[in-house]
Write a structure and sequence with these properties.
The chain has helices at about 10-20, 35-45, 60-75, 90-95, 115-125, 130-140, 150-160, 165-175, 175-190, 200-210; strands at about 1-5, 25-30, 50, 80-85, 100-105, 130. The chain contains 10 helices and 6 strands; from the N terminus they run βαβαβαβαβαβααααα. The protein is an alpha/beta fold and about 210 residues long.
């Protein structure tokens, strides 16, 4: 079973590589940032990717975004997130794209090596492994309708709140106006806004964004 590792901590990356290689897996490559990961994914065929969340350059959510993009390019790619942090928005998007072959474990809460290895095997086989703390935080996060939005839809809504129209939003995000129209429609749908005229719905969406 071939594994890709996305981890910027060299000690942890080396430790994971040794552990997996000595436990019947084959580590195809180790990437330290999202760009290296994308290049390695294009070069190597792997059965599962083990990814950290916070990576260079901003140390926020690069790993999860890289995993989501990898699953977009290769649908169904098994991904095990192994991190100290729960990044709710992108974690929810990762799961929303299909929970099969997805895992999210917190480094500080994995107490046994065999527990980690079993999680890798289960996710690679198409199973789901979620730390209870991750589930708890995601359930709390989903209590607001705004949290149904994808990160891109949130960006569009934030620009709507600034008073930008679809054309200006498209220019700002460097996407097509058609894509913006689709995102705006998704925002209206996910916020359960009534089917009135689009201008009124934009106002209601902005009010929701502002918490009013």
């Amino acid at each position: 079973m071939r594994v890709m590792i996305l981890e910027d901590n060299p000690i942890l990356a080396e430790g994971l590589s040794l552990l997996l290689n000595n436990s019947g897996f084959e580590v195809a490559a180790v990437a330290t940032d999202a760009d290296e990961f994308a290049q390695a994914m294009a070069t190597h065929h792997v059965d599962i990717a083990v990814v950290d969340v916070r990576l260079p350059p901003t140390f926020t959510d690069e790993g999860l975004r890289a995993a989501i993009e990898a699953r977009r390019v290769r649908p169904g790619l098994p991904v095990l997130v192994f991190s100290q942090y729960v990044e709710e928005v992108y974690a929810a998007e990762l799961l929303a794209a299909g929970s099969e072959g997805v895992g999210y474990l917190l480094k500080d809460r994995v107490s046994r090596v065999d527990e980690f290895l079993e999680a890798v095997r289960r996710v690679a086989a198409g199973g789901t492994v979620l730390d209870p703390e991750v589930v708890s935080q995601l359930m709390v996060k989903r209590s607001s309708p705004l949290d149904r939005l994808t990160p891109r839809e949130r960006e569009v809504l934030a620009l709507m709140a600034e008073g930008l129209g679809n054309t200006a939003i498209a220019d700002k995000l460097v996407i097509t106006e058609g894509a913006v129209h689709k995102h705006v429609g998704n925002v209206f749908l996910k916020l359960n806004l009534p089917p009135t005229d689009s201008g009124h719905r934009r106002v209601l969406a902005v009010l929701a964004h502002l918490g009013l």
